[in-house]
Amino acid sequence: MEKTERHERILHLAGERGTIFLKRAVEATGASLPTIRRDFQELEDAGAVERIRGGIRVRRKDGNVSFDLRAVQQSKAKSSIARKAASLLQSGDVIFIDGGTTTNHICFHLPQIPLRIITNSLRLSAYLDDASNQFPEWEVYLTGGKIQHGSNMLAGPGTVHTLDFYHADWAFLSVGGITADGLYNTSEAIVETERKMIERADRSVILADQNKIGKRAMCRVCGLNPIDRLITNKPEGRSLVEEEMQEKNLMIIHVD
């Protein structure tokens, strides 16, 4: 098992219960004890976890798993999903991009064409600000709002108020979960932002890896009707949840 895959496996298991210990990580990955100790240290250095006696613990702020931890989970799938989303864009498009870890990957795949990008993501805006020196045809707008600690995004009434000024051709959104009865995310502030982006965009696209399919989070964003399409990686075998979503006329695009 390669290091990236091993790290994702460790973080997935840690995310389920909040902690994982050395013995469990060795059993789950087949790696040696010294290798797992190095993995734990590297994950702590990356800010995704903190070391505890005999294991690691997921860093949580305001009840949410940290951005750094979520960013490395399913990173290959998230990159492929984001690449497909970016391929939908045409010259002159105005796009909303929310502050999720999957949508964050879009910045690495944007076409070199004139675009206007409106985001509540501090990381995304910082990257695009640097990149716009090389690609000046990108215009970048950052919303107002309160910094959501641990998520690197802006949310709250200030964010929603800012979005009322704009209209977009596309809204690209991450979610905490998606089922046949709608979209879910982890906090009220995030949900209000995503609802406003959906309202102010012609087409809304959900970017979600298979870990999000069939799952719910604390807050419901909306039903499937306002959503233009879902981009996700291919499921392992038949997905009854996806079939239910397709019955509700949701277009689903799979990537490798």
Structure write-up:
It comes from Rubellicoccus peritrichatus. Keywords: DNA-binding, Transcription, Transcription regulation. It holds the Pfam family HTH_DeoR. This is DeoR/GlpR family DNA-binding transcription regulator. InterPro entries: Carb_Metab_HTH_regulators, DeoR-like_C, DeoR_HTH, NagB/RpiA_transferase-like, WH-like_DNA-bd_sf, WH_DNA-bd_sf. The longest helix is centred in the first third of the chain and has 15 residues, at 3-17. Residues 61-73 have low confidence and may be disordered. α8 (157-163) runs parallel beside α9 (188-199). With 256 residues, the protein is α/β, with parallel strands linked by helices. It is globular and about 55 Å long. The relative contact order is 0.11. Helices cover 37% and strands 27% of the residues. The chain folds into two domains: 3-58, Arc Repressor Mutant, subunit A; 74-255, Rossmann fold (3-Layer(aba) Sandwich), CATH 3.40.50. α6 (101-104) links the parallel β6 and β7. It has ten helices and 17 strands. It has a seven-stranded parallel sheet, sandwiched between helices. Strands 1-3-2 form a three-stranded antiparallel sheet.
Report strand %.
25-35%
Gross morphology is globular
- What series of H and E elements makes up the topology? HEHHEEEEHHEHEHEEEHEEEHEEEHE
Return the average pLDDT rounded to an integer. 89
- Determine the number of helices (DSSP H or I, runs of at least 4 residues): 10
- Helix fraction by DSSP (H/I, runs of at least 4): 25-40%
Unreliable stretches covering 5 or more consecutive residues: 61-73
Q: Structural class, from secondary structure content?
A: alpha/beta
How far the N terminus sits from the C terminus, by CA atoms, comes to 19 Å
Quaternary class: single chain
Radius of gyration: 18 Å
Count of DSSP E strands? 17
**CATH-defined fold name of the largest domain:** Rossmann fold
Count the domains: 2
Tell me the strand order in the biggest sheet: 8-7-6-11-14-16-17
CATH architecture label of the largest domain: 3-Layer(aba) Sandwich
Instruction: Please write the CATH class name of the largest domain.
Output: Alpha Beta
Question: How many strands, what sense, and barrel or not for the largest sheet?
Answer: 7 strands, parallel
Domain HTH deoR-type: 3-58
GO molecular function: DNA binding; DNA-binding transcription factor activity
Keywords: DNA-binding, Transcription, Transcription regulation
InterPro entries: Carb_Metab_HTH_regulators, DeoR-like_C, DeoR_HTH, NagB/RpiA_transferase-like, WH-like_DNA-bd_sf, WH_DNA-bd_sf
